[in-house]
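Design a sequence for this backbone.
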């Protein structure tokens, strides 16, 4: 992950170079094997994975820090998540090892944090790691004073020294010695780190530039410069999907007519769909590709990737009519609804890369397994289409030797493969689907990867948005129904004293919501309103936005803090604008504000949105392409934007015709409202301007407004589309 790359000079570097004798390795504090530690009472799947480690783990809380203060011990903070491959490696290598655990228990008070449960804690200490070392990732290892001031940061640490890496068996005794003999230096280092992190946080939002069309050109140019002409995507290996780059490029194409922008989107979407980063047997996307060709993935599957990629493929279909985009979006949603949906209606967080202790084992096939599962003709067809070899198409990353394992992937479009086989595309597709179903049934009998079954409000908000958008574009009510179930669950279960909660698992809703929870769920509700025109979702979106501004807004500097004004006090109160693996809360909130401004007719929403851009303008100007979700918001703000009001009887054929026509065309910068012909009803309280519009001659009528100027009404869907799409 990329964040700030500035390094600071710290005395902590001495930790890994000072050679001293090992501290005694007594084991009196080791938790007996199999005996649960304090994590056994937690709900997080990640914490529960460590609940029987011999390390005397604490969850984050006062009890741990009070003990550290009372006994004058440094704190060992380990942050990860349940589907993190290298987190598993460090656990098996060190945290399950009695020898390492003995050293840790004697030296530290040890704390485990699930970064998905507590993104506030993770964000602060990931920033620390970036500032201290220029690197970040998970597992994240922080060593700090009892008052939470860090003096050492690292990611994965092996048990023993190797290849220049200091191992836990060396590192822990060194820190123990330094803590007892050079404590003042470590505390001084911690003070400098805290000062630096606070200065960096204060400087994250700065500037007063009014970001406009020029920054869109800059962002496009930077993406074009980093674009991989051969394989699609941006940059080299490892290669991440980053769907918000593609969503912005579609908007840029719509604005400019740039064929190059559209080509970048289409080439990337096709390459990802054909590559091994896509699960051709069970659907859904893996986390990222370890190579530049989208071939060999890191096999973890995340809910947010499915949501954002489903949106990208849905919008690509809307923009181009390409059938492969619709098929891919639907397959992603099939995977989510089949494997990632909770009985309560919410969506689970992730699936692991590993099964039976091996990364990717669930997804890989030998040709012998293929021949056993299929008849001879089917096995030959699968091998030719999906590039399967007896020697395997997956090499050992360390030795480059062939492993005999295969990952399904396509090297050509389906029509080209069909032509090379002398088949029609339809016949080939039908045969491959038969093969897929047979292999899927067999794969289902394998040991499945671990599923992180907690429900997160923010990631569910993204999935609601994806399902609602697909429901609108594809006219599929099943997607709208799934989005409704999740939204209703969140709006009822994930609230306490009127405020959002972040995490639900095993019957327990807990942890105060962050700005991402509010912004992402608001996004989902706005999309769900446009898919269903149920005003309750629009009302809920408006209420959440009010709560977000009331508790997260910075009245002095502008923009949104990540945590609420009454949240736990950490080293610093951060703001996020970088659109990394997921978009930032400020970027999403900016677009939400603009949409709500068009819905309500209230210009104060536009001013709030513009102030977010101004607040972060200096950072955005330094590298606009790192803020592509923000670019989509700016694109909406620059305009032209459209407001479409359809007045007609809900469910009537003429109303449905206008709604379907509006959703079918790619017009990204619009809001769509619908009210009954006999009065605005509930909509009046939110969009009072709609009251003045009536149906013409008893027929469903469309009112198209652009940049606050309204055209003459029409009952003709073709004319409505013309008004929506005319530059």
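Sequence:
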């Amino acid at each position: 992950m990329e964040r700030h790359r500035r390094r600071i000079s710290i005395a902590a570097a001495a930790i890994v170079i000072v050679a001293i004798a090992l501290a005694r390795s007594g084991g009196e504090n080791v938790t007996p094997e199999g005996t649960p530690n304090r994590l056994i009472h937690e709900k997080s799947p990640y914490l529960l994975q460590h609940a029987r480690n011999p390390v005397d783990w604490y969850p984050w809380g006062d009890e741990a820090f009070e003990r550290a203060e009372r006994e004058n011990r440094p704190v060992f903070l380990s942050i990860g998540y349940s589907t993190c491959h290298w987190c598993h490696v460090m656990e098996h290598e060190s945290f399950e090892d009695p020898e390492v655990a003995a050293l840790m228990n004697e030296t530290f008070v040890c704390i485990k944090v699930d970064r998905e449960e507590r993104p506030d804690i993770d964000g602060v200490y990931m920033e620390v790691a970036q500032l201290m070392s220029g690197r970040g990732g998970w597992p994240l290892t922080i060593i700090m004073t009892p008052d939470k001031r860090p003096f050492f940061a690292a990611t994965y640490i092996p048990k023993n020294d190797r290849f220049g890496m200091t191992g836990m068996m060396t590192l822990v005794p060194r820190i123990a010695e330094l803590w007892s003999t050079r404590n003042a230096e470590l505390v001084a280092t911690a003070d400098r780190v805290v000062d630096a992190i606070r200065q960096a946080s204060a400087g994250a939002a700065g500037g007063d530039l009014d970001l406009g069309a020029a920054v869109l050109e800059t962002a496009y140019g930077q993406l074009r410069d980093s674009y991989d002409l051969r394989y699609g995507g941006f940059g080299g290996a490892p290669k991440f999907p980053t769907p918000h780059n593609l969503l912005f490029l579609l908007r840029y194409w719509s604005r400019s007519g740039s064929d190059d922008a559209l080509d970048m989107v289409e080439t990337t979407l096709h390459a990802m769909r054909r590559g091994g980063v896509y699960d051709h047997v069970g659907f859904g996307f893996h986390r990222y590709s370890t190579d530049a060709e989208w071939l060999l993935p890191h096999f973890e599957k995340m809910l947010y990737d499915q949501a954002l990629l489903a949106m990208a493929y849905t919008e690509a279909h809307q923009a181009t009519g390409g059938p492969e985009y619709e098929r891919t979006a639907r397959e992603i949603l099939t995977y989510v609804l089949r494997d990632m949906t909770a009985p309560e209606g919410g969506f689970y967080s992730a699936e692991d890369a590993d099964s039976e202790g091996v990364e990717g084992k669930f997804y890989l096939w030998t040709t012998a397994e293929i021949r056993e599962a299929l008849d001879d003709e089917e096995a030959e067809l699968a091998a030719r289409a999906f590039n399967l070899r007896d020697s395997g198409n997956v090499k050992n990353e360390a030795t480059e030797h062939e492993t005999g394992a295969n990952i399904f992937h396509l090297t050509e479009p389906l029509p080209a493969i069909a032509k090379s086989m002398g088949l029609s595309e339809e016949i080939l597709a039908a045969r491959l689907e038969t093969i897929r179903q047979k292999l899927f049934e067999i794969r289902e009998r394998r040991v499945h990867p671990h599923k992180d079954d907690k429900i997160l409000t923010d990631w569910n908000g993204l999935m609601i948005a994806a399902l609602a958008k697909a429901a609108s574009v594809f006219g599929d009510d099943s997607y709208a129904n799934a989005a409704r179930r999740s939204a209703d669950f969140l709006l009822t279960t994930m609230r306490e004293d009127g405020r959002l909660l972040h995490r639900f698992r095993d019957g327990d809703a807990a942890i105060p919501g962050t700005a991402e929870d509010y912004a992402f769920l608001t996004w989902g509700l706005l999309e769900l309103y446009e898919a269903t025109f149920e005003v309750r979702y629009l009302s809920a979106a408006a209420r959440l936005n009010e709560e977000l501004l009331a508790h997260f807004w910075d009245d002095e500097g502008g923009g949104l803090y990540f945590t609420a004004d009454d949240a736990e006090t950490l080293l610093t109160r951060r703001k996020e604008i970088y659109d990394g693996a997921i978009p930032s809360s400020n970027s999403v909130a900016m677009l939400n504000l603009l949409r709500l401004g068009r819905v309500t007719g209230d210009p104060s929403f536009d001013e709030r949105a513009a102030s977010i851009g101004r607040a972060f303008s200096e950072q955005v100007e330094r590298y606009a392409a790192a803020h592509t979700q923000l670019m989509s918001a700016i694109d909406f703000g620059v305009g032209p934007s459209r407001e479409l009001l359809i007045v007609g009887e809900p469910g009537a054929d003429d109303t449905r015709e206008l709604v379907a026509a509006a959703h079918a065309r790619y017009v990204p910068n619009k809001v769509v409202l619908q009210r009954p012909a006999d009065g605005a009803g509930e909509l009046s309280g939110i969009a009072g301007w709609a009251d003045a519009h009536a149906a013409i001659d008893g027929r469903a009528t469309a009112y198209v407004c652009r940049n606050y100027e309204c055209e003459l009404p029409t009952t003709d869907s073709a004319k409505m589309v013309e008004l929506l799409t005319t530059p």
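The chain has 26 helices and 19 strands.
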